[in-house]
Amino acid sequence: MITKEHLEIYKKYHGNGDALAHVATLTEKEFMDYKHWSLIDGFMQDLFLIKNKKVSVSFIEDVNKRLKECCDTENTAQILKEMILPYT
Fold first, then answer.
1. CA distance 29 to 49
2. In the beta sheet, which residues pair with residue 71?
3. CA angle 35, 85, 74 (to 5 degrees)
4. Sequence ranges of the domains in the chain
5. Interhelix angle for 57-70 vs 74-82, to 10°?
6. How far is it, in rounded angstroms, from Cα 59 to Cα 4?
7. Could you give the CA distance from residue 2 to residue 77 in angstroms, rounded to a whole number?
């Protein structure tokens, strides 16, 4: 599950996995494992495609469905969307 705390760490390091690996605290590294980082990264790519209107309606529906499944709350999903799609 992606939580608000995962997104805060992702934003803190500007989506740069190398920065997380080299600069993050041990607590951050333990909390934000590869699985969570790559899941957020994948959503960021999907949302970027949506923002640039490069996808079908069914793709958008699939992304929204996966967001609901992978985020702990609707608010977390909304924060993730707003990282790419402000005010959606």
1. 28
2. 2
3. 60
4. 4-82
5. 130
6. 24
7. 8
pLDDT tens sequence across 30-78: 999 999 999 999 999 999 999 999 999 999 999 999 999 999 999 999 9
Please check the confidence at residue 16 and state whether its pLDDT lies above 80: yes
- What's the start-to-end Cα distance of the chain, in Å? 21
- Cβ(28)–Cβ(22) below 8 Å: no
Distance CA 37, CA 6 (A): 8
Strand partners, 2: 71
pLDDT at residue 66 in the model: 98
Cβ-based burial of 27 (10 A; exposed 0-12, middle 13-18, buried ≥19): exposed
Confidence of residue 23 (pLDDT cuts 50, 70, 90): very high
Token pair recorded at residue 43: 């959503």
